[in-house]
Amino acid sequence: MTKRIALTGATGFVGGHLLRLLLSRGYKINALTRVMQEQIENVNWVKGDLENKDALKELVKDAHVIINVAGLVKAQNKKDFSRANSDAISNILTSIDKEKTAPHFIQISSLAAREPQLSDYAFSKNEGEKVLINNEIGINWTIIRPPGIYGPNDQETLKIFKLIKWRLALYPGNKHHRVSWIHVTDLVNAISRIVEKDQQYGTIIEIDDGNKGGYTHAEFFDTIAKNLNINPIKITAPNFLLKIIGHINDIMGAILGYAPMLSSKKVNEICHPDWVCRDTHKFQDDEWHAKYNLTEGLKETLDWYKNNKSI
What we know:
- This protein is of the alpha/beta class.
- It has a domain at 4-152 and 182-209 and 278-290: Rossmann fold.
- It has 10 helices and 14 strands.
- The strands form 4 sheets. Strands 3-2-1-4-5-6-11 form a 7-stranded parallel sheet, with helices on both faces. A 3-stranded mixed sheet has the order 12-9-14.
- The longest helix has 18 residues, at 78-95.
- It is globular and about 60 Å long.
């Protein structure tokens, strides 16, 4: 029997890659969308959002697996983060028909969830995990905490490429702080493996490209510079300067009514010295291995940007 998958975030960066991969492997998809998309074979677009009860009931109807990729990375306040990253999970769980076999719930969280004290975003992702772990309907769950994600169509990494193309490498916080990375193709392949094998129940997975100890900011920026064949001016923005900028952005955001990406609490995340995936939470699947190391992955990403005239 072909599995039906309920998918949120299907129009985003990670969700879009995941949607295409799952379709290529023969799955049928119920995909939540705020704006109706053009029809795709084996995709049932469900118009609505994570607060729309009727839409969520249609989303999870007959689903064998729920994959929640949707989330909010910037917001004006703690309440908005909680609504998108924690309350949304409760809403999905409430929509599940208790009379039927409960689907496997795969939550795409964030490595930030292990440090909830750092920011409202990190706190909300951690709270969302707790909602799923402590669910009262006995649903099988898997939580995936990706680190930095990059790859074709990633608009955040594109900003770094453009900055370095302008011959400026601006290291955030401390260039020696360490971060794990994963190419989006490797991430969605791992998610697909979990769907296929229907296992990894009750586990929190921290998944990366296999480079033990992650990378320093300098290594990441230098790899981009080499791919661009550019020798940029290297500047480290000290923590205190980032915090000043973050507080200014907070004030401007409050006055003008927008959510700044570089808020004071986001700076807390950036300045944290250790965003490296732990071996104790690694993905246990002998048939999955990261295809891309950082050099190969960033080269492919750059090629995509060039082919799509993004850079």
